[in-house]
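User: Can you write out an input/output pair for a complex, sequences first and structure second?

Assistant: Here is one pair. Inputs:
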Amino acid sequence: MTDAKKVLATFQVNGEPHEVAFAPHKTLLEVLREEMNLTGTKHGCELGECGACTVQIDGTPILSCLSLAVDAVGRDVRTVEGLAQGHELTPLQHCMADLGAAQCGYCTPGVLMTAEALLRDNKSPTRDDIKQALAGNLCRCTGYLKIFEAVELAAARMRGETAEPSKESIHGS
Amino acid sequence: MVLDDPTTRPAQAKTESPWQHDKKKEDMQWIGKPIRKVDARSKVSGLQRFADDLSMPRMLHMKLLRSTHAHAEIVSIDVSKAAALPGVKGILTGKDLPIPFGILPVSQDEHALCPDRVRFVGDPVVAIAATEEEIAWEACRLVDVQYRELQTIGGVHEAAATMEPRLHDYGVRGNIHRLENLEFGDLAAGFAKADHVREDTFFFEGNTHLPMEQHASLAHFDKDGKLTIWSSTQTPHYLHRALARVLHPLPAHHIRVVATPNGGGFGGKSDPFNHEVAAAKMAMLTGRPIKVALTREEVFHCHRGRHPVLMRSKVGVTKTGRILSMDFQAYLDGGAYGSYGTASTFYTGALQTVTYPVENYHFRGARFFTCKAPCGPKRGHGTVQPRFAVEVQLDKIACDLGIDPAQLRLQNLAPRESLTANFLRIGSMGLGTCIQKVVDGSGWKTRRGKKEVTKDGRIRGLGLACSSYLSGAGLPIYWNGLPHSGVQLKLDRSGLVTAFCGSTDIGQGSDSVLGWIVGEVLGIDPLGIKVVTGDTDLTPVDLGSYSSRVTLMTGNAAMQAAERARELISKGVSEKLGVPASRLVFADSRVFDAENPKQGMTFQDAVICTEARFGTIGTVGSYTPPASAAKFRGGGVGPSPSYSYSAAIVEVEVDPETGIYRVPKVWMAHDIGRALNAAVAMGQIEGSVYMGLGEAMMEESAYRDRTHKGNRVFLHKIPSMLEYKSPSVFEMPEVVTYVVEDHDKNGPFGAKEVGQGPLLPMMPAIANAVFDAVGVRVDENPISFEKVFAALQAKKEGKEPRYGPSTGADGVPVVDFGDSLKIKTPWQGGDGTAWNEPKREKKAAK
Amino acid sequence: MLRLPTFTYHRPKTAAEAVAIHKAHGKAAMFVAGGTDLYPNMKRRHQTPTEVISLQDVPGLHSVDVLPDGRVAIGAMVKLSVLEHHPTLKQHYAAFAHAVREISTPLLRNMGTIGGNLLLDTRCTYYDQSHEWRESIDFCMKTGGAICWVAPGSPRCWAVQSSDTVPLVCAMEAQVELVGTSGTRTIAAGELYRDDGIQYLTKQPEELLTRLILPAPRGWKASYLKLRRRDTYDFPVLGVGACVWTDAAGVVTKANIRLGGAGSYAIAATDSEKLLVGKQLTDELIAAAGAAAQKPARTMDNTDLDVYWRRKVAPVYVARALAACK
């Protein structure tokens, strides 16, 4: 029941202040989606079991379904909507789009927020590093392979290399 | 399912040109290239709006109160306390929605809210709308439903043995929903001639789709008396039909269904669902927009996933492994409602014949009603379970005969351009190439049977299996003589081409298929084409995203519409350019003379020129599959314009001490006719490998069955993302993919199905690989660690090294199938009719 | 969407204040650290505190400190992802860092704390279900009902100890520091737990776990081996924590083996331990010690994977955990 008294707070989301009134038992997921209309952040279980709701707080990917919104006040919250600069996608977004790493696209925001944090900390992640990082993001469409390849490709391009996807990953062996 | 008489069907839609299936790759600008999907940018930007991302002013939130009993009569429902809760704005019970519905015309057995009886834990009883979702949930807790418990029916054996109570008052008898008994050729003669006969019993446990997106809908009834529902559905047209039926007297043309992008479907969003119907009704009741967003647990209640199927297969073969007779029995645990179950039952018998010829074939299938969430279509619909049985059994036969399992299959391939024993028409057939690719790639010939030991003491094994799948069902869900897919193109003076189609993108890229095909035919950038899909107000009917039908059927309709547009534009500009229409080329967003490319104009100018001459430009295309050769009752399930083929070799590493195994590598070859988009086709194949891996290793719709003090508790054991196990990044193997392109004349540019077929060989290939590694058979899917361990224990104790259902008489339920329908095979001179079938009245097409 | 019930949220600034708030509200209050255990439970309505006391602002709980005597003290609020990457822990307490890394997923470890993991609620597939699911079977004794669905004749609850770190820190003879109304006390980690699915902790509800203290890294070797379906997400259905002390000659002077995921607390495999003491850790001895661990593995049918199989592979896992202590 939501007879709880609302609090008014200002969130810093994707570099912009959002002033929102919300009940203190609301999760960050609920406040992002329902109060700020930032519906790019998804939900698949609301119990911390799927990773679809991943956002970054102070650069760390976390599960917004298990975070209280009040605890995010005064912190730097980043969602999938904050990745692209204007119309320009990030290298990772480009690579995900090019490789078809987003099939239905529902796990994609969570995957992007997790992988983006990895690429910030690790310029040359191995396949195993990528798996370790994405071990909390379920995907039912891709079998993860195109996601791994997109992260690898994006890492190479972010290092300034002129990398292209392998022939095998696009056309098969 | 109306299994109609194909002789009354209209011929295949005529087209202005062949399907261009032989066109060379290098002659095409877009087809086969790894260009982005039309919605790729929005998908990676968080901008794609799924159903639960939508909201409207004054929107209410609806929750469903669901049954807490597996089978019970509803004695009374008291909603007074709920109605008094502040914020509650509307309450519906079964009496508000008395008209039943269901996906198939022959099983209209569902109600949005159960009027008098609940049939599984999770069956909805009351719907409540409130200003906030929490209030609606809280209000549901205040409803007092009194039940009188009825006997629970838990599985196929129980259902077969229970005449009363019946879960439904229709069906064959007792709790048997469907019985099918089809006999092609002379079984006895085939077995008599056989050099080797073996009989095996298999069980395939049910599993579910687990789409990442939980089903959601937003319904709005506007002041003009028109209803709109945005919903995560794969089949907006069928939902539209169901709503028109249930909301009577609201006319069908006052109902608009908009399919939102599906956050994964896999077949799980193909039925009209109770929450959709209830939301629509609630919107009409309250006059306010209604949002319903299911919890993960409720998605498990919606289910419609893989049927648990118990199978017994007796096969007689020659020394070389040619199948002379196959006698196949399938017992399907259908759950509480019909859903697609009639089709599912036929599908468990339909495609056994399209990979390797079966000279004489007998199929018996029985579907039962039980007190579980209803089963239905999941990726590979109905054909997955028998494929597991067939491919494991063939592996055993190869072993018995001392033939390499790959060789056995290669020397017994179904011929291309042929009819099977059950009158399915095979077109292009690349299974041989598929097998060769994976055999060569994996080092099969040198590595199989070597029992290599890994550093951590695991034993390696390789297993092979093959499969085939439809490129769309030959018949629609309900009997009609109309096209299966329609596409409209609008071309306007801005140069914009808009493609309208009722198809629904569930992540497989069907929106993009429209763009690629229209772009290729008109020589314009597919990403510049606007695609409008899945909206019953705006788009022509397409039957939906199921049975791998969209690429072929929508693709053909799109091609026809685009070819008509090209023809019109050619006429429109020919005079102005002074070039005969037949010499005009459409490429690079230009229309020009093939002999003098400089002589031409931009595509936009060509559209303007044509519009000036002929007026507003719009073209249409439609597609109806070819008539089936099967004319017997039941022959409507199985025919398809073309069949895809797949072969898989899987490597496993088994820990002999625990039965725990991992799958480090898979070689998968898939004959898809032609890849319309290389990267997207790869993604579909890899996704199939993933989902098959999950089904093989861990996924199961397990039920808790406990009795305490006389009360039986029967409900889904693990309805959560955490406990319904699906593979993580760590279980996914390395996949070597081979895209085989055996162009099929029925497909657009020769394309066939991609995305369901490669799921099928994964489970049997893993079972076969486990056998190769440690010499035990697991005849039951999932092939979980415990079962491998149990089989290893049996082996150690000198018993049969096998885990699986009982092979004895008690292994399958006792069911009287009655007399079989007897059909002469093509090689017996059969004409596709059953010689002992009673004459049926022809049903008139609507 | 599953949502939290309403509650009053407290963010006390000192441990004493936290304890006082809890004491004042009694059973209506619960502490929250990372929230990854409590909030799912609250969403499923099997824990419904009306007063939630966050420990994030309590000083002194957020660091990893090497004590003068070589022991390492870990603040209860230190995130699991910090621990798994902590250089000191990776170097001197590799088994502990490994056990932490085995917990759930990286996203969850970015939120979950060591204190929360040590106090993780016991789990059961009849308990970790939604309100609606539990209503359908009639609520079990852990959620206010009368029955234990795993063992309907049982007077007690059989929910399962499911923390990855608990069997290991118990085997290592680590200590935990508790702050209560009457001050601070330090007890052996093993003394924190009881063999009961409901009352699985010995501490007072308002007592605050402030630090985990690992023994100085000398004279022993430890390991943790986890059995589960997938290599991420899943809780242990068997978690073997082993710690072996040897003398200069390589003779075992003491051995602790604790089985997690096999009962309501981390069960000691005492027969196996006895076999080891006074002997060298040979392959034969390890196999024998493993075989002796079947009896204490009291697996019940309330987790993932088959109950009998879990019991049968327990010896294999114990042997492999011991082999890693060589």
